[in-house]
Design brief:
This protein is of the alpha/beta class. The two termini are about 15 Å apart. Helix 4 runs parallel beside helix 5 (about 150-170). About 40% of the residues lie in helices and about 15% in strands. The chain is globular.
Length: about 170
């Protein structure tokens, strides 16, 4: 819904920056919640959204943002990348898994109309044949899941938790 404010966690990151760009191009007003003020991927757009610096685990801060901006939709892109998760699994778990559960709880608490979560192909077993180099055909969701690293494990657990929130609480994700 154009002119509507949308909360984008991790909106300055590798995937989040494309999501921020997409919503701006489609008439939304992004409220970007990120842990670092790195505008390198959205420098041309930095006047078109509000940046709020913070920690994905800060429920009170995110609650204020949702209330003050009358947020109805959230795009949850915040996550630590594979190398950080692998070198510091507990930090990777806190940010990726606990951070996602925090966002699911916020969405449930504030009756968010839609929560979009970015997972990763890292949740799948080794990709072979047409799903690998050089074709990279999109992987079907029923492809075997068997993460090979901490990052993939955190992303898979987030998918499973989101499914539980949908099944148990009707959360639209």
């Amino acid at each position: 819904m154009p002119n509507e404010k949308i909360l984008i966690t991790g909106g300055l990151g590798a995937i989040g920056s494309f999501v921020t760009r997409h919503f701006i191009e489609n008439g939304y007003t992004p409220i970007v919640f990120d842990s670092r003020p790195d505008f390198s991927l959205v420098n041309d757009l930095k006047e078109q959204f509000e940046l709020v610096l913070g920690d994905i685990m800060d429920f009170p801060a995110l609650s204020r943002i949702i209330k003050e901006n009358k947020i109805k939709r959230i795009a949850h892109m915040a996550a630590l990348m594979p190398d950080i998760c692998q070198s510091n699994p507990s930090l990777g778990w806190r940010v990726n898994a606990d951070g996602t559960i925090n966002m699911l709880d916020l969405a449930r608490t504030f009756d968010i109309e839609r929560l979009v979560f970015a997972s990763s192909s890292a949740v799948y077993a080794n990709k072979e044949g047409q799903y690998s180099h050089p074709k990279y055909v999109p992987i079907p969701e029923d492809y075997p899941k068997n993460p090979a690293d901490v990052y993939g494990v955190t992303k898979l657990v987030c998918e499973l938790m989101a499914q539980q929130y949908r099944a148990n609480y009707g959360l639209p994700y």
